[in-house]
Amino acid sequence: MSTERTFFMIKPDGVQRGLIGEIIGRVEKKGFKIIGSRMLRLDAELASRHYAEHQGKPFFEDLVHFITSGPVVALVLEGEDAVEVVRGMMGKTDPRASPPGTIRGDLGMTMSRNVVHGSDSAISAAREISLFFPENEIMVYKKDIDDWVYPQID
Length: 154
Ligand code: IDP
Ligand code: MG
Hints:
By secondary structure, this protein is α+β, with helices and mostly antiparallel strands. 39% of the residues lie in helices and 18% in strands. It has one domain: Nucleoside diphosphate kinase-like domain (Alpha-Beta Plaits), CATH 3.30.70.141. Bound molecules: inosine-5'-diphosphate and magnesium ion.
């Protein structure tokens, strides 16, 4: 168990469908600490950098078009094993193959409209957080409830 940060984003479809509260509610209730939060509209350059690993793939242009089509909510979440736990909460890339109970499984129907993004590794998380958040926009603070989420002995 180690405290980690991950980058999490509600994509334009999630914003347009009025799912911001639903999705943030899920990660908050799980026990993640929100330590960064921004609403922004990506331009093509930021979108291409964010999705650099997918450049050249058949869906890349549609992906950049979609992710720049409206505002997103970008978040930095902190918690134990945050990368893996958030990926688990998201489900699979394909919402129809994602189990009920997951964000994509409950809220999405297609790969190209799958509602959320979450970093896939600690290295990706560090890269993505630095793309979206200057260090001084990340809030380091204690939540008193943390003692109830993570007891001393586990
Ligand atoms: P992930 O979001 O589950 O990590 P990635 O493979 O990193 O999935 O792909 C990034 C995003 O690109 C996906 O969330 C999805 O929106 C889109 N995408 C991935 N593969 C396809 C595809 O085969 N068709 C259409 N869109 C895709
Ligand atoms: Mg990915």
